[in-house]
Amino acid sequence: MANLCSVFLHIEGNSAQLKKLRTKICEQDKDLLDLYCWFDAYGAYGIVNDIDEFVEFAEEEGEISLDLSVKWEPHLSDLSKVSLLFPRLTFSGNYEESGNLLYGEFFITNGAITDNPVDQETYLFNHDDEFSEIIQNIEQAKYSIPYLTKKLDNVTDYLYEGLVEKHLLKKIKDIDLPLFINHSWCSDENKEEFNRRLKE
Predict the structure, then answer these.
(1) The pTM is what?
(2) Can you name the residues that pair with 172 across neighbouring β-strands?
(3) Rounded to the nearest 5 degrees, what angle is found at the Cα of 80, between the Cα atoms of 75 and 84?
(4) Cα–Cα distance measured from residue 137 to residue 143, given in angstroms and rounded to the nearest whole number
(5) With 181 labelled, which of 13, 15, 120, 144 sits at a CA distance of 20 to 30 A?
(6) Which tens digits make up the pLDDT trace of 91-125?
(7) What is the dihedral of CA 64, 67, 72, 77, to 10 degrees?
């Protein structure tokens, strides 16, 4: 089974071209779907009951927003072909495929692709409000270490595994290390680090 890659796409630019593209997506234009099949609202990943929900069009802001589920990767080269048909539009956004740690941000205009792959931590910090809030709270915390560990125990998102610990380690002072030793979230690597610091 294919890993799903989430693509968060924003399209903006010339109003006439934007409306034309939106119409083609909403009408499920065959020629357009041949270029970028992931615009298929009734594809393999579930039927869309309201095509207008699938294609979020903010007329005042002059942009189209789409959240797509595609196979394996964002298929930017296919999206660039669509861009060539609409040269006065800019296609930009970000993508994530956590199974293979594939994360990035992209920008396409008139067929030219700028793809900026990033590491998981950078991606989550830039695009995941919960993760960035957790990290900012840790880095700016004047809270006690027991308070921070309690917060950490409440973090359930598997994407954060190890990343929150890394930032929390930066905040630890030698006197507080024993409080961490028996926490279930500790990896063997972190336990070794705790023990190393205790001996310093």
Answers:
(1) 0.69
(2) none
(3) 155
(4) 9
(5) 120
(6) 999 999 888 888 999 999 999 999 999 988 888 88
(7) 0
